[in-house]
Design goal:
heterodimer, A: mainly alpha, 8 helices, B: Immunoglobulin-like, 3 domains, four-stranded antiparallel beta sheet, three-stranded antiparallel beta sheet
Chain lengths: ~220, ~180
């Protein structure tokens, strides 16, 4: 999920940047002082996750954890992803600065979708539903990201279709692994600290995170 | 409050300490070429290890076969036609030591006719250059791999950055709130 400089075309980069600015505006609006540490911790996790790579066929892929970020942060996934990616570009030259907008959108938008899909499920149900919700969030995160990247590549150039297909294929195992991991983490949090998932209140509850739109 | 500050300062110093140790880590390597052994000692930041005592043994625990010290360029060379493997140990001062195991050696040149000589010369030069380059190449590939992979240092650094950014953000936010 880290497009390097010079791959995507200007219109795609522009669209990505615009969407990211929008997402950041919404996310920062919901990020009051009490929620900042939570966002920082998730940003750190996102930062580290992309560094753990495992080989799939000829390529090497990494976990994105954006499904989990979405479930925990909702719209605030935008600032978290943005900071993580910016630091990766700065410290490891991973991705790039012109692509920061596009990369952030690709990872954060599916996170927001996952949060709207799954946080309600978590509020509604019991342990089994929490596992399912976690798996779905993980799947939406990876699938959404992969689809958006494929879209960005093909919009840049028709001939990138083959590359996009390869990209999708290579991320199928990532989808499986990340669904499992997200499910496990969500089930664990459901048992140990449900406030983080929006159940039983928590820091400003569901506001901005895609849960039931009532303030707690 | 002061106790916390002092403890934090000590922890910070402790975290910074290993960096100094790595900077002075020494390394020695040796290769043999045409009946001579060339030893080179240097520190990890590239500076040569001058006047560092090198001990040559048969193996790690064996008795010292030869002893010498490196010159101004960190080099040491001597004739050797004995058995291999050889275990080199270099004392680099301040308690640092480096070691290197040389598995096999290269025998000396055989005197031949003048015609064969020019052909052999090329082969000899080739072999000599290869021998000199081999350890360097290994070192380079190791360094390159290490530099490209983000290590634990970078991870901790990045996490610290994020915590710092969060702190700065909260600081300015709270200032704004206290002003209102």
């Amino acid at each position: 999920m880290h497009m390097s400089e010079g791959v995507l075309s200007a219109p795609v980069l522009g669209a990505g940047a615009a969407l990211t600015v929008g997402g950041l505006a919404v996310g920062l609006r919901f990020m009051d002082n009490r929620r900042v540490p939570e966002v920082a911790v998730v940003a750190s996790a996102l930062f580290v996750a992309s560094l753990i790579r495992f080989p799939v066929g000829p390529a090497s892929v990494h976990l994105t954890l954006n499904g989990l970020a979405g479930i925990l942060l909702g719209w605030m996934a935008f600032p978290a992803v943005f900071v993580a990616l910016a630091l990766q570009a700065l410290l490891f030259q991973f991705g790039g600065f012109t692509t920061l907008g596009a990369n952030t959108t690709v990872m954060a938008l599916p996170a927001v979708v996952a949060s709207y899909t799954c946080r309600r499920m978590l509020r509604a149900g019991g342990k089994t539903l929490s596992i399912i919700a976690g798996a779905i969030a993980g799947a939406i995160g990876v699938a959404g990201g992969v689809v958006l990247i494929a879209l960005a590549l093909v919009s840049t150039e028709e001939s990138f279709k083959g590359l996009s297909m390869a990209f999708v294929a290579v991320h199928v195992p990532v989808l499986a692994v990340e669904s499992a991991i997200t499910a496990i983490v969500v089930a664990f949090l459901w048992k140990v600290k449900p406030e983080l998932l929006g159940i039983n209140g928590g820091i400003n509850g569901d506001k901005g995170r895609g849960g039931i739109l009532k303030s707690d | 409050m002061t106790k916390n500050a002092i403890l934090s300062f000590i922890v910070l110093l402790a975290l910074l300490a290993p960096g100094a140790a790595i900077a002075h880590k020494a390394s020695v390597y040796a290769f043999s070429e045409a009946g001579k052994i060339y030893v080179e000692g240097y520190f990890f930041d590239g500076a040569p290890c001058r006047g560092c005592v090198v001990e040559v043994r048969g193996d790690k625990g064996g008795s010292v076969l030869l002893e010498g010290s490196t010159d101004e360029q960190g080099h040491l060379e001597f004739e050797y036609t004995g058995t291999y493997p050889l275990y080199f140990m270099m004392a680099a001062g301040q308690g640092h030591a480096a070691s290197f195991l040389l598995d096999e050696g290269q025998e000396g040149p055989v005197v031949k006719d003048l015609e064969d000589c020019s052909r052999d010369m090329e082969a000899l030069v080739d072999a000599a250059v290869k021998a000199r380059l081999a350890p360097l190449r290994a070192e380079i590939s190791r360094l390159r791999a290490a530099s490209e992979r983000p290590g634990i240092t970078e991870i901790i650094g990045g996490t610290g950055y994020i915590i710092g950014l969060a702190g700065i953000w909260l600081y300015f936010r709270s200032k704004k709130e206290s002003r209102d």
